[in-house]
Design goal:
mainly alpha
Length: 165
């Protein structure tokens, strides 16, 4: 009889831990998928910028901004996970960076490609250098925010007992 009093709590605790890991994996997945939607919209916008498809600039940019807001709302609605909020905060911080800094660089690139600063005004070397500088700024901004997000994701996975692939 004493044995049953020991086994039942152990089974309950084991089931709770397993459930907690599954919930943590699901939480991680929601955040990652929300971020991937923003990255997809950014890729779509960059495609139009690189192809000089100025007809699609404004609609792609609007879709990008709308996805940022939608993803932020989705992540905010999750709340913290078992009082652990650092991963959620890193994801929201990354989305804020997209909205504030990356969006500004994308507007600069769109305006540059729309006109005024074309090869008619600049020689091709200056044109290429300007474009590459803006792309480098954009990549640097995104990389810094993504590193923080990735570090917090690793800590989250370690804390709640699952591995990232």
């Amino acid at each position: 009889m004493r044995f049953l009093f020991f086994i039942i709590p152990v089974i309950f605790i084991s089931a709770s831990c397993s459930n907690n890991v599954e919930n943590a994996v699901d939480y991680n997945e929601v955040i990652v998928l929300s971020y991937e939607k923003v990255a997809d919209m950014e890729d779509n916008l960059m495609f139009h910028i690189l192809m000089s498809d100025s007809i699609k600039f404004d609609s792609s940019y609007t879709e990008f901004l709308n996805q940022i807001e939608s993803s932020k709302e989705e992540i905010e609605s999750l709340g913290s996970f078992n009082t652990y909020s650092e991963f959620q905060e890193a994801a929201l911080s990354m989305l804020d960076m997209y909205k504030d800094k990356a969006a500004q660089r994308l507007v600069e690139l769109m305006n540059f490609m729309k006109g005024g600063s074309t090869e008619d005004v600049m020689d091709s070397t200056a044109y290429d250098v300007y474009f590459e500088d803006k792309m480098f700024e954009l990549d640097s901004i995104i990389e810094d925010a993504f590193k923080r997000f990735e570090n917090e994701q690793k800590k989250f996975a370690a804390k709640f007992g699952f591995s990232l692939m």
